[in-house]
Amino acid sequence: MITAATADAVRELERRTMISTGDDALMQRAAAGLAAVLAAELRHRAGHLYGTAVTLLVGPGNNGGDALFAGARLAARGVAVRAVRCLGRPHAAGLAALLAAGGRVVDLPEDGRLSGPVTLVVDGVLGIGGRPGLPEPVARLAEAVAEDGWPLVAVDLPSGVDADTGAVAGAAFCADRTVTFGVHKACHLLEPARGRCGVVERVDIGLEAADTTAPGWLHALEDDDLALGWPYPGAASDKYARGVVGLDAGSDQYPGAGVLSTTGAVHAGAGMVRFLGADRPAELVRRRLPDVVFSPGRVQAHLLGSGWGDRPDGADVVAAALDTGLPAVVDADGLRFLPDHLPASWLLTPHAGELARLLDRERGWVEEDPLRAVRAAAARTGATVLLKGASQLVASPEHGWVGVAVPGPAWTARAGSGDVLGGICATLLAAGLPAWRAGLLGASVQAVAARTHPGPLPPHALAERLPETVGRLEARARALGVRP
Ligand SMILES: NC(=O)C1=CN([C@@H]2O[C@H](COP(=O)(O)OP(=O)(O)OC[C@H]3O[C@@H](n4cnc5c(N)ncnc54)[C@H](O)[C@@H]3O)[C@@H](O)[C@H]2O)[C@@H](O)CC1
Ligand SMILES: [K+]
């Protein structure tokens, strides 16, 4: 699990730590860690440290201070270090340390272009105190660094990205590597900023322990969390232990959604799937998935809504499912028929447009800050919410933190993927998992199944790869010492 925080949560943690360490200690620890990573990178690129050249791009805040103190450490070891003043006045003590160690400082050229020789460029322009975007000529510089192909290490985060939302609204740097301090920042986990961070390395700076379940914190699943959290059936598991899914998806207008949801549920390992939807999808399901049953009976979780279209009895179907007291996944068109209050055991799976409609907002409002949007949806409905998209986020009304699923390749974002995902999540609910966990594991297993395939697959083919993916996860869980 990767734990990340928004800027406010980080600042609070730093403030509490500095009470015991004093003001300077954290920056010195950050600079020492940064210098070690930079030295390793220089050795990796040049084979040695002495005689390599580092250009520090420094802004007016502590982010530039980190870069300058790290630069001073490198200069003391024979690296030619040049600081380029990019915005305002650089951190005074950091600059003094660099100059004392033999480094030099220059102004940013008007055309924003760096001259060589440069072994490595370090982005210390803005950190968590940065407003998103970059003013000229720094914006031009960011573009030129990318165009000229200079290797770039970002201090804490690539300057220009929004540290809290992951948005990249204007100019921003694009790093090969990002060195962060204490805890990851939200932008390291959230697209599109995540794609600009490169490899993220966290340096320990001795921050106090924090309550990471509070609002402002994110927890991102990694492959091993998925392997350890998946509900593998044991030798004694019958169909009820594995879970029976009652599925009402698709319509005569959109029958394919019913097939895809059912395929997702079956291949995620449901003990049994009852298809309780319209006739046309039922006919297709009968032909393709002979192990599905079509009579009503005992179920342990519902799946409603995918491919319903304009269903006149949608509200009644949702209300009837609510009356059973069982957990449910509500997807797509089903989201238009929600009552005011839902239990946290219900998992809503909107994409950005559907979430916007749910909150009477514009889609852009969701996209500019998905974290805010997913939390607002959980608070408004009382349900657990999985927001689908480039980064898949899960918020629950029962806790403040937000979960982030394992990221998958971009090609999984296509029509039908969401239907399959609904089926997977319903299977996990039926197996007894809490809704937040079902949402995180469901989105993650789909991403991992996609990632382990060399090229794009249509959603139904991806669903058919799930058993193999779960098999690999189970083997990994055993290797980690867990006997499912
Ligand atoms: N607070 C601490 O104890 C620690 C902070 N550290 C570093 O400090 C960073 C945060 O430092 P700061 O709070 O000084 O913030 P920044 O270094 O991000 O810079 C903030 C300054 O930049 C200006 N600014 C922000 N956005 C701008 C924009 N778009 N255009 C022009 N000027 C802009 C602000 O007016 C402010 O003066 C972290 O990211 C991290 O790198 C580390 O040294 C670890 C310890
Ligand atoms: K930076």
TrEMBL record:
Keyword Lyase in annotation: yes
Subunit relationships:
Homotetramer.
Please list the residues that bind K(+): 63, 123, 159
E.C. number: 4.2.1.136, 5.1.99.6
Q: Which cofactor does it need?
A: K(+); Mg(2+)
Q: Name the reaction it catalyses.
A: (6R)-NADHX = (6S)-NADHX; (6S)-NADHX + ADP = AMP + phosphate + NADH + H(+); (6S)-NADPHX + ADP = AMP + phosphate + NADPH + H(+); (6R)-NADPHX = (6S)-NADPHX
Q: What is the lineage of its organism?
A: Bacteria, Bacillati, Actinomycetota, Actinomycetes, Propionibacteriales
Q: What is this protein called?
A: Bifunctional NAD(P)H-hydrate repair enzyme
Q: Which residues form the YjeF N-terminal domain?
A: 10-213
What are the residue boundaries of the YjeF C-terminal domain, all occurrences included? 222-473
Cofactor: how and how many bound: Binds 1 potassium ion per subunit.
Gene, per the UniProt record? nnrE
* Annotated residues for binding of (6S)-NADPHX: 62-66, 127-133, 156, 257, 307, 351, 419
Q: What's this protein's family per the entry? A: Belongs to the NnrE/AIBP family. In the C-terminal section; belongs to the NnrD/CARKD family.
Protein keywords: ATP-binding, Isomerase, Lyase, Metal-binding, Multifunctional enzyme, NAD, NADP, Nucleotide-binding, Potassium
Entry function: Catalyzes the dehydration of the S-form of NAD(P)HX at the expense of ADP, which is converted to AMP. Together with NAD(P)HX epimerase, which catalyzes the epimerization of the S- and R-forms, the enzyme allows the repair of both epimers of NAD(P)HX, a damaged form of NAD(P)H that is a result of enzymatic or heat-dependent hydration. Bifunctional enzyme that catalyzes the epimerization of the S- and R-forms of NAD(P)HX and the dehydration of the S-form of NAD(P)HX at the expense of ADP, which is converted to AMP. This allows the repair of both epimers of NAD(P)HX, a damaged form of NAD(P)H that is a result of enzymatic or heat-dependent hydration.
Quick one: which residues bind AMP?
418
